[in-house]
Amino acid sequence: MPTMQTDKPFTYKVDEHLTDQLGVGMRVVVPFGKGNRLIQGFVTRIFEQTDYQGELKKVAAVLELAPVLNDESLQLAEWMARETFSFRISCMQAMLPSAMRAQYQKKVVLLTDQVSEELKAFFADKSEQIFDEQKISTNMQGKLLKARRQKQVEIKYLVKNKARAKKIMMFQSKLTEEIIEEEKSKLRVNANKLRKLLSFLRTHPKIALTQAQFEKKIGLTAGVLRAAEKKGWLLRQESEQYRDPRKNLMVGQTIPKNLTSQQREAVEAVLAEATKKHSTTFLLQGVTGSGKTEVYLQVIAKVLAAGKAALMLVPEISLTPQMVERVTSRFGEKVALLHSGLSSGEKFDEWRRIEKGEAQVVVGARSAIFAPLKKLGIIIIDEEHETSYKQDNMPRYHARDVAKWRAEYHHCPVLLGSATPSLESRARAQKGVYRWLHMDARINQQPLPKVKIVDMREEVPQSKNINFSEALLRGIKQTLERHEQIILMLNRRGYSSFMMCRDCGFVLKCPNCDISLTLHMDTHSMKCHYCGHEEAIPQVCPSCKGRHIRYYGTGTQQVEVELQKLFSTARILRMDVDTTRRKGAHTRILNKFGQHEADILLGTQMIAKGLDYPDVTLVGVLNADTALGMTDFRASEKTFQLLTQVSGRAGRATKKGQVIIQTYNPHHYAIQLAKEQNYEKFFRKEMSIRHQGAYPPYYYTIQIVASSPEESLAAKKMYQIYAEIRKYLSNQAVILGPTPQAVARINNRYFYQLIVKYKKEKQLFVYLDKILYESQKDERKGLKIMINREPLNFV
Ligand SMILES: Nc1ncnc2c1ncn2[C@@H]1O[C@H](COP(=O)(O)OP(=O)(O)OP(=O)(O)O)[C@@H](O)[C@H]1O
Ligand SMILES: [Zn+2]
Ligand SMILES: [Zn+2]
């Protein structure tokens, strides 16, 4: 675990035999602390001499042959640690693929036979055992620690390096044409297999194949290959093979499209700045279906032609296989992918292809912003308003800020794109900090789809069907009859969101969190969406033993069942966290829908973005109000963005699209303006509300959270911080709180927070550094302090 005491460089001695090998930016294993346990660290400087007085410890091992962090990444880590109140080591680790992060393992080693029967049983005839705190009982742990004090056992720390290249065996031909003829003449008459091999090698000089490939191609078994190796025909050698995440994609080849005049203007504006090596930030605001992706692709093509590299971020990329396909079908082998859907081996290999300069276009989710491209010519962030670009654990960076830092380092532009920019970005464009590019027309001169708002307060009494309005049912029916496709969004997974006893009012809650359990029909259980707790569905009320249990709050599973009842022949696909847990599941569902093997795609907000299917002519939102209920000041912005994005999925090609939004708040401005799809009007309205409430983008915000298994400890700490922080603030700053968080307890920890809104407070940062430093001591008591600059979730 990184701690503040370790957030400074330590000096180590380097043995002679390592001096040639060692370089700045490499990972090393070093002994640390009193127990000299081994940990992974990074070399940040190398000295010929040191004036350190005490005795230096030695570097135990060097983990690789070449540095994994370069000059740029070391500087970036330094900046990020300061900006986001993080430890430097966390920043360095965040930049590397997970396979390169150290895995620690503890082992207990038996030192003598003179131990208790209980310990003997624990070791079970072995001299060592893995020390796993999760698996060994606390009682046993105590005994082991006591035995350690009595020098009966010893605890060893191991650093496991999982960063490994995948190796395969290849057989390479060593023969020239003359030798093949000569060898052939020497063969016995019945040596058919060997003759076959020689013929093959003659037509394929210098070929190298695996045994499996030889078997598949010409039906030769391992025995023949071994014989050929003995004769000196083939050379058997290990060679490295990249794990390729693109192998399941359906990739064709596409050529650049003829740009519309708006697209051309955007491309030219960005390229002009790229040529001048200006690190200008652009905001490309283009309505849904205006062809932003084509703009990105053509900018990338020009950047590559100038011998530079391109970095493109998309939100949770595994959700949009379509986007990956669009980029790979244009740039092929040059593309590297980095996202959470890849295995850690695949990520590691992609990372190294980038590092070695073998891939010049990187497409990835948030952490791909650290891709080790050396000559960056453009950084693109698609759907720049997405909150997933901010990491919510340490280091709490926003990819947009890192993009701007890297762009300055490389002297290249940043291109932010969205149909519904974040208020922050749009406001910067207004002030001229960003350059504003605008595309207000859809491709094919299609109008934006017509949006109808249905007031559910009037629907419910007449209809026995509470989830679907008359209008939406009619819409679905007609669309199915026309053999067109439908996207339905409901932002709640599971079957029902809570159960309540009608006799006594009891609500079944999670034992670890302050939140009700959700009914899941696929697993026949009640689940907590925060900590993963799962239990059986109660038959009677756990409180009064009554039998009148009711379920409330519709989730996607329930709608799927209802929908199938209503439209028995419709082919329905459901896409939510539960159906996409398995690797590649997103891609499979979307490909199926894309090939029109299903009529209805039903899902949570993960279906709102980026999908571009020509047959989709109806989009339905079952409940537009889920986000509005939040106490977050960004609730309206999030609702407007989500509704506009999902509406944009309809009528993108030649067929007209329509959208039906069901709501209990039909007159709310976020819903009304989403109906008009009028971003500009929404922007002005929301800005004036933010101005009145003194919220971002008019103010900066910092969130401080204290959490502990003991509620009083977390609360006390927060009030203490509250009392102190005021001394560091001018009277221009506003403090909200301290308050418990909206879900006050998660996984048996209590959360208290306060938020500072400010414009310019130099002293604040001095104090925050102090909190971060002091939080070390509290951590031993189980108290954790977290500092979050510009939090995106405000509850
Ligand atoms: N110049 C062009 N000529 C013809 N077709 C185009 C052109 N540019 C883009 N398209 C097509 O128009 C469709 C919409 O483009 P695209 O998906 O890039 O829009 P977008 O602005 O990214 O939309 P969204 O924000 O909704 O994801 C795509 O099918 C794309 O292939
Ligand atoms: Zn009851
Ligand atoms: Zn829980």
From TrEMBL:
Residues the record lists as binding Zn(2+) 2: C510, C513, C528, C531
Keywords, comma-separated and alphabetical: ATP-binding, DNA replication, DNA-binding, Helicase, Hydrolase, Isomerase, Metal-binding, Nucleotide-binding, Primosome, Zinc
EC numbers on record: 5.6.2.4
Free-text remark on how the cofactor is bound: Binds 2 zinc ions per subunit.
Residues covered by the Helicase C-terminal domain: 536-690
GO cellular component: primosome complex
Catalytically driven reaction(s): Couples ATP hydrolysis with the unwinding of duplex DNA by translocating in the 3'-5' direction; ATP + H2O = ADP + phosphate + H(+)
Cofactor dependency: Zn(2+)
PANTHER family the UniProt entry points to: PRIMOSOMAL PROTEIN N (PTHR30580:SF0)
Name of the protein: Replication restart protein PriA
